[in-house]
Amino acid sequence: MNQQRKPLVTHIFTADPSAHVFNGKIYIYPSHDIPHNGEDNDEGDEYLMEDYHVLSMDSTESTCVDNGEALHMRDVKWVSKQMWAPDLAYTNGKYHLIFPARDKNGIFRIGAAHSDSPIGPFKPDDDYLKGTCSIDPCVFVDDDGKIYMFYGGLWGGQLEKWKTGSFDPNGKEPDPDKPALTPYCVELNGDCNALASEPFHVKIVDENGNDILAGDEDRRYFEGPWMHKYNNTYYLSYSTGTTHYLVYATSNSPTGPFTFRGRLMEPVIGWTTHHSIIEYEGKWYIFYHDAELSNGINHRRCVKFTEITYAPDGSIIKIDPYK
Ligand code: FUB
After folding, report:
1. Which CATH number is 127's domain given?
2. Is there an atom of ligand 1 within 6 Å of 241 CB?
């Protein structure tokens, strides 16, 4: 049955899907949105997630299965609230769920939990990964075995509050004519329980080699990074937040600099847009979310997927999610 562009599950609200392929099956690691009637705001207070469920599909034609609760906030010592968009890395024979949440001081950090199975349950570390901040981790294991984590998000994700190197609750985005903030990149150790290098901001430039500026809201980084490799080129894709696009930039190195290439997906129903990209049986797919299932309530989202294709020059053919 064709499952594309439909909510993959409807019994719970899900968002921020990070998809991976293990042993011929597709596993999806989403956020789990909790319905409530509170207001939306720029801090993202409406996103009140408390746990993670792992979804799986035997193939792109199969129905999606919810494998139940894989990790709950009550079992994570360092978390106070808001377990947002996770990712999963398989290294050293273990599955590592990498997830952001607010620590006991209300500051977003990134932590890890580990399992022998891709569907968990995951055993969390006692503390977050020291040296991390902000949200939206994407863990990319390169062909040489190096493990890179890309992360960061503006506004609710607090990225602009770390501009000075330490947490400044009054930190603001750069002025519109200054280089935009970009995601952090860092290497993880083999067990994914510590950083293995110093985090740095990747460079994202335009076709002339100039930094993308903070005022360029159609192109500047906002949140939700994803890294994939196609034909030996590294693709860093992300959400532009306020303009609601998914866009991408490419490089011949996983650490950049990345050159902006274009738009990948037009806006979806709902404020946020967040995705991942995988290869499955020789075809490429984007997993994403929208708020169709709740008729547009921003914090009641549903994950979907659809096929993507590449032009001969490596550019990705843009998706309109509703055409
Ligand atoms: O789900 C909470 C936040 O909304 C994520 O961290 C962002 O990427 C956005 O999708």
Report:
1. 2.115.10.20
2. no
CA 86 to chain centre: 7
Which of 272, 275, 290, 302 has most ligand 1 atoms within 8 Å of CB, for mutation? 272
Q: Summarize pLDDT for 277-320 with one digit per residue, the tens.
A: 999 999 999 999 999 999 999 999 999 999 999 999 999 999 99
Both tokens assigned to 180: 């935009």
Please name every residue paired with 20 in a beta bridge, in sequence order, or none if there are none: 27
Range of the domain at 186: 13-308
Catalytic positions are 16, 223
- Domain membership of residue 245 (yes or no) is yes
- What amino acid occupies position 120? G
Ligand 1 centre to CA of 83 (Å) is 10
User: 235 has which bridge partners?
Assistant: 228, 250
Our answer on whether the CB atom of 303 is closer than 6 Å to any ligand 1 atom is no
Residue in 307, 303, 323 with CA at minimum distance from that of residue 61: 307
Decide whether any atom of ligand 1 lies within 6 Å of the 134 Cβ: no
Tokens at residue 96, please? 């590592």
Beta bridge partners of 151: 184
Closest by CA to 142, choosing from 33, 235, 254, 52, is 254
* Number of domains within the chain: 1
Q: Distance from the CA of 122 to the center of ligand 1, in angstroms? A: 21
The pTM of the full predicted model, rounded to 2 decimals, is 0.98
* Helix and strand numbers, DSSP H then E, in the chain: 0, 21
**Domain-located, residue 313:** no
What percent of the chain lies above the pLDDT cut of 70? 100
CA dihedral 148, 217, 134, 303 (to 10 degrees): -80
C-beta 224 within 6 A of ligand 1: yes
Q: Could you give the CA distance from residue 181 to residue 323 in angstroms, rounded to a whole number?
A: 33
In a domain, 22, yes or no: yes
Q: Tell me: the pLDDT tens digits for 158-172?
A: 999 999 999 999 999
